[in-house]
Amino acid sequence: MTSTIPKSIDDTLQLLQDADYVADRALATVIYLSMKMGRPLFLEGEAGVGKTEIAKVLAAALDRRLIRLQCYEGLDINSAVYEWNYSAQMIQIRLAEAAGGKNNDALAGDIFSERFLIKRPLLEALEDDGSGPSVLLIDELDRTDEAFEAFLLELLSDFQVTIPEIGTITAKQPPIVVITSNRTREVHDALKRRCLYHWVGYPDAERELAIIKARKPEVGEELSRQVVAYVQALRGEDLFKRPGVAETIDWVSALNELDTITLDPQTVNDTLGVLLKYQDDIARMEGSESKRLLDQIQSELAAIA
């Protein structure tokens, strides 16, 4: 592990590879530029393609804290940035009243001091705890509303937040910021302009096979190739939710637990729930459709061999 950012795109590729993350050069380039230029990295793509994992890998590989803000509908400043410890403030007010030793201005200055501040992820990411800048993951930003996006503009532009009672808190060393979106809605251009952008798509067969080998080296070569071929073909079907890389890894792990050596129609049918997450998709693919797809990929693999 290293605490310094990579010095080149090739070093970035190696950093990711050492952490078992198989990236293409385009992704490694934008990650390198994000760190080098000190700009937030905005990643869009389907769920399960490895966007969130990038922040985790960077934190582990660079030996930095990972601070994660998991976004959801209704997320507000109190949950994302800070809030005051109201119960502790009330106790302090009662103690001051009992002692009778402080005027109102002094009391207000005391109860709105940092010791009564509860720091949430965005504020934590701006502070140096002695271990250096952190990796801030703002995950699934598309789940929030536009008002929260607007609040993020100051943070992403100047790496600072303003607390009315205290003032502006600015990061001494900006964190590495990774923002992800599953594109359930469009994120505003004003936020995107502050970031470097990259679309994380589904990997091709070669890279998906490399991912399985990196993450699940105990799985046999033949099974790995069949799984990748099947998933690649499945993504071409008319499904509500196509399986991502995360589902591929889960499926090959499940098959390995079942001591599967090669795919067969019964095993595929029995384990479709690991690969597909919607009943309509499972109903569409099980039975004859699953067998058709399996026969197709086995014929293609046999022709290559």
Q: CATH homologous superfamily of the largest domain, by name?
A: P-loop containing nucleotide triphosphate hydrolases
| Uncertain residue ranges | none
- The residue fraction in helices comes out at 40-55%
Number of domains as seen in the coordinates: 3
Order of helices and strands: HHEHEHEHHEHEHEEEHEHHHHHH
How far is the N terminus from the C terminus? 39 Å
Mean pLDDT: 91
Strand order of the largest sheet: 2-5-8-1-9
Shape, principal axes of CA atoms: elongated
Q: Report the sheet with the most strands, covering strand number, pairing sense and barrel closure.
A: 5 strands, parallel
CATH architecture of the largest domain: 3-Layer(aba) Sandwich
Helix-strand category: alpha/beta
Question: In angstroms, what is the radius of gyration?
Answer: 24 Å
Proportion of β residues? 5-15%
The number of helical elements comes to 15
CATH class of the largest domain: Alpha Beta
The CATH topology label of the largest domain is: Rossmann fold
Query: What is the number of beta strands?
Result: 9
